[in-house]
Every structure is written in C-alpha cells, then in structure tokens.
Amino acid sequence: MRLEDHARLDDLVESTILLVEDNEDDILLLERALRNARLANPLKVVKDGEEAIKYLSGDSAYADRTRYPFPFLILLDLRLPRLSGFEVLAWIRDQPDFGELIIVVLTNSDHVPDVSKARDLGANSYLVKPGTFEELVEMVKRIKGRWLLLNQLPEEPVSGEAHPSA
Q1: Is the dihedral of CA 70, 28, 125, 111 positive or negative?
Q2: Looking at residue 54, what is its pLDDT?
Q3: The pTM is what?
C-alpha cells in the first residue's frame, strides 16, 4: 500500500489527518484549533498506539478505507497507552510502503533526548504543544502551510519546531 495510492499532492486539502492522542481535552482543543485555522482536512482520532497501528494496517474495524481513509499526515503524541508514540513511529518507518507518510510529533515534552529519538526514528517534525489556545491555532496554521498546502515537502524547519540542539 503506497501513499500515492491514497493521496495525490493536488488532493491534499481533502486528505485525512490521523491524530494519535489519548488525552480527551487535547483532542477537543486540537479539533477546535483545526476549525479556527480553517483546516478542512478530515480528522480521524485513535487513542492509543495499538489502535494507530490497526488503523494504518487497515485491520479489524479499520478495513473499510471509505470510512477510515489512509492518512497523509499523522499527528502523534509520544506518551500513549499500550504502545508509545516512539514504538508507533518505529513501526511506521519499518513499513516499506509508508515511507512518504508525514509524521508530526505533537507532544508536551521538550526533553532533548525525546526530540533526538523522534528524529532518529524518522519523525518529519517535532512540535511541543503550546500553552495557550491561540498559540495552538498558530501552530496548526504552520502545519497547514508546511504540510498541506505545498506541492512538495519543504527542506527548511518550521519556526517554532523543537530541534535536537534546542
């Protein structure tokens, strides 16, 4: 299953985003921030690492790709039940057909070893959840501009991203 089979670059606005997050408050805030940032992409949510892998594999209830489309972008928390975000990230990068899947780690941790490990495992971006709703909306706008509205993947880091040296 190749990413091109699921989302063409000219269809990015309609491509699904998969949010892997276990905190209900963070889910609700992010859903609201996506609306405020006028991001119209469909959002699917899973609440633990095992469900993320099932979703991406199309296993069990997630076999219906009309109802659960393969995502173009994953927003991945690191601290998850069952399997951690690191384990999910490593699993995704071990799948030969998922190489172009964009993974943005969106977490509370700005711990440098976490940033380094996520980058080493293949995260495209590492963003620390901001402290205010307005900052979250601005972060979502940056994600939208970088990953969803461009015809190619950018080489430069987004302002506000955590870096291993930060």
Answers
A1: negative
A2: 97
A3: 0.81
